[in-house]
Every structure is written in C-alpha cells, then in structure tokens.
Amino acid sequence: xxxxxxxxxxxxxxxxxxxxxxxxVLGIIIGFIILLIINAEHxxxxxxxxxxxxxxxxxxxxxxxxxxxxxxxxxxxILCGIAVLFAYKSGLFNIGIAGQYCIGAGISLWxxxxxxLPWWGCLILAVLAATLWAAIAGMLKAFCNVNxxxxxxxxxxxxxxxxNVLMQNEVTMNIxxxxxxxxxxxxxxxLIPTLGLGALFHNNRYVSIAIPVTIIIAxxxxxxxxxxxxxxxxxxxxxxxxxxxxxxxxxxxxxxFTMAVSxxxxxxxxxxxxxxxIQPWKTSSSVPAMGFNGIAVAFLGGLNPIGAIxxxxxxxxxxxxxxxxxxxxxxxxxxxLISSIIIYxxxxxxxxxxxxxxxxxxxxxxxxxxxxxxxxxxxxxxxADSEAGSNAKSKA
Length: 396
Known about the structure:
- The chain is mainly alpha-helical.
- The chain is built from 18 helices and 2 strands.
- The protein has helices at residues 3-10, 12-38, 43-52, 60-89, 97-113, 119-144, 148-167, 183-186, 197-200, 210-227, 229-239, 241-246, 251-274, 290-300, 305-321, 334-345, 349-362, 368-395, and strands spanning 173-174, 179-180.
- The protein has a two-stranded antiparallel ribbon with strand order 1-2.
- The relative contact order is 0.18.
C-alpha cells in the first residue's frame, strides 16, 4: 500500500467523515423502510423527493430560491452545532444551548420591534444577553461545582418563560395570533442586510450576510481551538482539568470563558435567523428544538467546526425536502422523522469510528496514534541499541 494512501486511511478525520456518512445512510435506509411500511407504491418517489429538496423543481429559478431557503435555515443549525462542540472540546456539555438560543431570539426581536435599533445593534444586544446567560451556568460549574447539564436544563425553561413574557405585549406581538410582527413592516432597518446575495438566489429576500458570516465564524473557531494557546488550554482543561490546574492553567476562568463563548455563538445563531424575518416568534410551551439539534450537528460533523457546516446543511436539506412530498400519501413530517433517526444514530458515532479503525487494522492499516506510538517505540529501541553498542565498545 502506498505511503500516501496509508496516511490517508490512518487519518482520524477520515474516520470521522466515514462514520458521519454511515450515520446519514443508516437514517435514510430506516426512513425508507418506514415509507415502505406506510405506502410501498409511493415510497421510492417520496424518498427521492426528500433527498432532492430544491432539485425537485425543474425551473432553475425555483431551484436557486429554495436552495437559498435551505441555506438560510441551515445558519442557526450550524452555529448551534459549533456552540455545542466548542463547549464539548473543553470538557463541558452545554445542553443549555436551547435556552441561550431562546434568549438571543427574544432580545434581538425586542430590540428590533420595540426599540427599532439597526440590525447590528440588535445582534450585539442578543449576543451579549446570551453570553451572560451562558456564563451563569459556567459560574455555577466553576464556583459551586454544579453540573452544567442540570444548570443548563433549568436555565432553558427559565429563558423560555422570560422570552414569552417579554414578547407577550402589543408593542412586539400580534396578541390575537400569538406571534411577533413582521420586522420588514415595523422596523426595516433591523433586517440583516443582503448586500446583493438575495439576487444570486432568484431574489430570495431572506438570503443575507448571515450565510458568509457563519462560515467565517466556523473558520475562526477552528483556528481558535487548534492553532492558539488559549485553544490548547481549553482542550487541555477538557481532557483533565486537574492536570491543567496543576500545569498552571486557570481552570475556573476557562470554564466560564468556554460557556460564555458557547452561549455567544448560540445567541448569534438565533439573532441572525430571526432578523432575516423568515419566521416570527410564537408563544410556545416548549424549548426551541434548534439547541438540541445542534448536538447532532456537532457529532455528525465530527466535532469539527468545518464539518458542522456540512452536517448542518445536510440535516436541513433533508428536513426541507419533506415539504415537497405528496401529502395524499405521506405526512411531511416524515422528513423530520428521518432527520431524527440520523440525529439518534449520531450517538453511535464513536462506535462506528472504533469499528472502522478495527476493520482497517485487519488489513494492516493502524490508526495514526498507534503508528506514532510504534514509531516512537522503534526509535527508542534503536537509540537504546546504539547506546548499548557504544557502551560496549568503550568498555572494550
């Protein structure tokens, strides 16, 4: 086997991508089986429509328009996934993303509809509010040793009720419909600018700078985690906070910082979605699912910010495709079911990666870590032999 090919197969990133593909394929196959059980005759067409999404239309203009819709709705998914993985890399499981997303949505809409602030002011307020909200869980973890999962779950419900109360007034909401007013009608200056991007997607007015900003955020987080000192400290704290503390790293401040940044990204996700005016906020009795879906995006993307971009787009692609199936035979929520299966299968990501590593080892391809260890061992052995030889010669 060529060295280049062997190194590629040894790469952990390759294992993550392959495991993610297996999760996606598994979800699609199980979804198709369910479609066959419901209506075997129309199941092939239904799964085809779901997978095609915007390609369902033959008209090029409509294809571009619905591609734009998919991209716009992918933004909060991708950013929530990045928020989850940022905390996870630092050894924290931020299940409070849903609440931080909720706070970001509420503050951005309040700033737009009640205060009529420009879009950048709405974004800043939303990000600051979500940052402070997430920092509460971080401080409880750092100073009181309260598990961040428990703190996050409690804060999720508190945030939902706070936002419901905040929105439930005639200034921001149409009370009879229990949904917020259109930003375009009440405060057009609060809409995120498109900078001409909408024209590229058949004049889709919801396509905005949120899409390129999301990609930039993913790149920044990737660089922060992998190429900076603070990223090294955060990952070291995540691997073993006691060892990190012994090495002189500030474990408590790292925990608070991690949660704050994770919350800031979640708040940005909500504000960049709702400030496009694509969807109003509706009074709800359940926490937004976007935060929990971000967990799946993080793991499906291999806990890599760049991978989260593709994972978020894929899940939204499947979900959006469900709106095109024939409702005479199937419920459009079948696409949500397929997405849920994919999300559930993400729990087996590490199992799939382990299975892939074992399979490759059978054909003589060891994981990069193992090969590095063996190389280090052989180098150490050769050094020991040479030292022994030199000692023998000196004695002679």
